Amino acid sequence: MAAIRLLFLLILCLPATLAEAASILSPSDADRHPLLQQGRPLIAARGGAKTTGPSLFAGRKGGSLFEPVRRQASLPLARSALPLGPLSSRAAMLRKIIARAEAGSAGYDAVQHGATRRPTQRPTDMTIAEIYHWIDRTPGQPHAIGRYQFIPSTLRMLVTRLGLPTATRFTAKVQDQLADLLLLDAGFDAFERGEIGRTTFMNNLAKIWAGLPTSSGRSHYHGYAGNKATMTWTRFEQEMALIFPG
Q1: I want to staple 227 with a disulfide (CB 3.0 to 4.6 A). Which of 73, 74, 125, 210 is the partner?
Q2: Residue 61: strand pairing partners
Q3: What sign for the dihedral angle of Cα 31, 33, 34, 35?
Q4: Where does the record locate the signal sequence feature (predicted)?
Q5: Backbone angles phi, psi at 224, to 5 degrees
């Protein structure tokens, strides 16, 4: 009789025992798949939750860390980074050297001599939009304009970087502001801090303005579209030494 009772108890407990065994040997769906296959990525996907701090990539806030950087061309980057212009007499003196090499006596109203169809107004009386219109209406000729002889692609790039409306007049002050951006591109601030030498800075300037000589004595663009240096390297060095002694 005792044996029959024991057998009966075993039969009653068998389903629970089998179920427990099944739960141990057969993990749930959530545990069966690796973490990245469960829809819980380690890094937020594009369009997912936004981060609250800056991205690892400059110029971005929020979004995925791997989302491509989209440069905001309308952002006036230069205005906060440009204490040159009237605040720096040395920048002004340097611009005079460049102007003599590029524009001569025509100064802020200079137009490249090879332009056979010239603007109907003086450049300083024109808006940026009017200059663009002149460029578009007169293809097949040089369009360097102003005291610093901005070519079309450079002019558009600088106007965008400064965030200038195209209704802005191409005044002497505006031309100086655009030129100051190019001075920064050449390493003006790095040179002032002593991070690059004078010769390096001068060669950088010559890579921007074809009328300036490189340390070879020739324009960086010598022979290209008729370009040549309009001063000697010795003269360039002498004038730079007066502005930046030491």
Answers
A1: 210
A2: 54
A3: negative
A4: 1-21
A5: -85, 120
Total residues belonging to the chain: 246
Q: What is the pLDDT of residues 35-44, one digit of tens each?
A: 223 333 222 2
State how far the Cα of 5 lies from the Cα of 209, in Å rounded to an integer: 106
| Token pair 């690059």: residue | 196
The residue to which tokens 């300083």 are assigned: 124
Q: What is the 3-state secondary structure (H, E, C) of 183-205?
A: HHHHCHHHHHCCCCCHHHHHHHH
What are the structure tokens assigned to 157, written together?
Answer: 């790039």
| pLDDT tens digits for range 119-155 | 999 999 999 999 999 999 999 999 999 999 999 999 9
pTM of the model as a whole: 0.66
Find the radius of gyration of the CA atoms of the chain.
34
